[in-house]
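Colleagues,

For the teaching module next term, I've prepared a clean inverse folding example: a structure given as tokens, and then the sequence designed for it. I'd like students to try predicting residues themselves before seeing the answer, so please don't circulate the second half yet.
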């Protein structure tokens, strides 16, 4: 079984008295404009920005890089949230089973404009947008990422100095 190590971020900011979180709609998502499914109304798939750890890179560096590449935003490290571990089967190439570990970090917004990403990133990300952190657990598509949003919400509730 192949192993993959990835990292991602839950980037948050406080605006208008509420906490908001950066989320992405992956490319190929029917609700994000995939022409092959224009006849159906699909709920957008929302996910957290994340990606593979490059050789020589630390997971936190990966999380900061991936958040910037996929959302257009820079963040400052607050805390490590957790590692998610799961197995999936590649839907491309060899169809091999992959054991994946994704380290997630809580990041505070520093600068940038949401969805201001490089054109070459559009093959991965159809759109980046702000969603309310207290709604993220219901809006995110994947179980482990829902848990990360829940942990982020618990963190900001317990730490008024964020």
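(Answer key — instructors only)
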């Amino acid at each position: 079984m192949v192993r993959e190590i990835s990292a991602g971020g839950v980037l948050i900011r406080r605006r208008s008295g509420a906490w908001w979180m950066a989320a992405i709609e992956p490319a190929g998502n029917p609700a994000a404009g995939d022409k092959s499914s224009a006849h159906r109304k699909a709920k957008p798939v929302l996910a957290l920005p994340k990606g593979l750890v490059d050789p020589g890179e630390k997971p936190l560096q990966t999380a900061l890089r991936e958040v910037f590449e996929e959302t257009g935003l820079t963040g400052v490290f607050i805390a490590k949230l957790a590692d998610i571990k799961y197995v999936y089967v590649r839907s491309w190439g060899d169809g091999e089973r992959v054991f994946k570990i994704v380290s997630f970090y809580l990041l505070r917004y520093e600068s940038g404009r949401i969805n201001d990403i490089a054109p070459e990133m559009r093959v991965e990300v159809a759109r980046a947008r702000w969603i309310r952190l207290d709604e993220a657990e219901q809006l995110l598509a994947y179980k482990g990422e829902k848990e990360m949003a829940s942990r982020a919400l618990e963190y900001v509730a317990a730490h008024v100095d964020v």
